[in-house]
Amino acid sequence: MSTLFDEFMTNSSCESGESDLCRDESAALILKFVAMASILVAGFSGIAVPLLGNRRGLLRSDGEILPAAKAFAAGVILATGFVHMLQDAWKALNHSCLKSYSHVWSEFPFTGFFAMMSALLTLLVDFVATQYYESQHQKTHDRHGRVVGNGEGLEEELLGSGIVEVQGETFGGGMHIVGMHAHASQHGHSHQNHGDGHGHGHSHSFGEHDGVDSSVRHVVVSQVLELGIVSHSLIIGLSLGVSQSPCTMRPLIAALSFHQFFEGFALGGCISEARFKTSSATIMACFFALTTPLGVAIGTLVASNFNPYSPGALITEGILDSLSAGILVYMALVDLIAADFLSKKMRCSLRLQIVSFCLLFLGAGSMSSLALWA
Where would you find the membrane-spanning parts of this chain (predicted)? Predict the structure, then answer.
């Protein structure tokens, strides 16, 4: 069984396809180290900008800079799914080397099918996760959300129990109680003068409100988006790692660094809006930034015994690229573009609309143009 698997993944009548003039293993090895360093720095920089900017008040989620920048990043992710991942998946599943192994992969549009199923499964995960976090939030609220006095005691009780911090930046218990601060902040106090005294009316918002819903959505979006980004980041890292052609790798390194920075920016914006604990946000940031360099390292180690044009490699690459494309397209259109562009903030600011649409198309166009080199 092991022998058959090794033959399936490594052997093929097709050669690598790289020109002998460009094949230079020693130069390629140096470039792989350069790639790991460049992509690592780009990934950490991209995801750190919105996280640190939000904490320092420079890129606050309630301002206009972060939504506009996220529009550019959303365009990058959308183009990654449509232009890069779907195209790579189609090439892999329709490769001549795979056709010589089995014609079934060219007789059915598996690329679009896997991408469609991935998008639908992402919708299912999105829905189930949102329901789960809302139920967890309600349970937490039932335990800690008792109104004391005129309502101000609620915030004090949460602060005393370690659920939230003063600035609402971190939440105890991680992702399961995100949104508690939004609930607490919904306690409005209306004071009306009636001539002979003061009437105090207190509006307690414990139902399904935008503040709670958006907080829960940000948690789900950040986690599902990271899943989609990480899955295809590993694939592109492996592809770069197994390459022995400096001619191919040089433009690819620049393209992947650009790509990693803005994907990190989009993910960092979602994480900052979800208001995870610092430790949770750090773990998510490191997991994202290290995935592609890790893929390059793994590809480098197996390059001598791995044939990227074997049937197993082509099928694996094609399916994973299709699944990643479905996730990224869904996340970009539904949870990033639609969520921001159909929000009340966007509808109320013509300037933000114009800037965001321009940046959205600029991001999509810029990432699409990289297909000339990567």
Answer: 29-53, 65-86, 108-129, 281-303, 323-342, 354-373
